[in-house]
């Protein structure tokens, strides 16, 4: 599983302007709805439901909100670099500025877990995150995220 299997250039957002976690999840759900063809509210509800179990803010300024939707036939990703960090209730109490949303079919099982592990490994790399934080354009973010050498090194 490669990050390029999850993202398209249109599913990468640079400089997303949101004020808080709720607004971030709403905006990400809106954008994901355009990509996967499902209602925005359905996606938002799945992401919020997962957040109720515990924050997907994994630390170091990163959050990986995720959920399963019966209507999907494959995994989908959406990445956003926030204009300003926000409180996300992360495990290290640091604000979040890099968010990778993962949406999976209900039947994804191991594929969903493998994708989460791949995303986590990539974003655990301080050098990758530094480059993502230093990029102002969506196409540059997409190139960094899908670079197979960074993906393999992570």
Q: How is the CATH topology named?
A: Mannitol-specific EII, Chain A
Shape: globular
Please give the CATH class. Alpha Beta
Q: Examine the secondary-structure arrangement and name the CATH architecture.
A: 3-Layer(aba) Sandwich
Low-confidence stretches are none
Q: Let me know the CATH homologous superfamily.
A: Mannitol-specific EII, Chain A
Number of domains: 1
Distance between the termini: 13 Å
Question: Helix content range of the residues, please?
Answer: 40-55%
What does this structure look like?
The protein has 154 residues and is an alpha/beta fold. It has a single domain (3-148), classed as Mannitol-specific EII, Chain A (3-Layer(aba) Sandwich). It has six helices and six strands. Strands 1, 2, 3, 4, 5 and 6 form a six-stranded mixed β-sheet that branches. A hairpin with a 2-residue loop joins strand 2 and strand 3 (62-63). Helix 1 packs across helix 2. It is globular.
Question: What labels describe this entry?
Answer:
6 helices, single chain, 154 residues, globular, alpha/beta
Task: Report a brief summary of the structure.
The protein is of the alpha/beta class and 154 residues long. Helix content is 44%, strand content 23%.
Record the SSE blueprint.
Blueprint: E1 12-16, H1 21-36, H2 40-53, E2 57-59, E3 62-63, E4 66-69, E5 76-86, E6 96-105, H3 110-123, H4 126-133, H5 138-146, H6 148-153
Parallel strand pairs: 1-5, 3-6, 4-6
Antiparallel strand pairs: 2-3, 5-6
Helix pairs in contact: 1-2
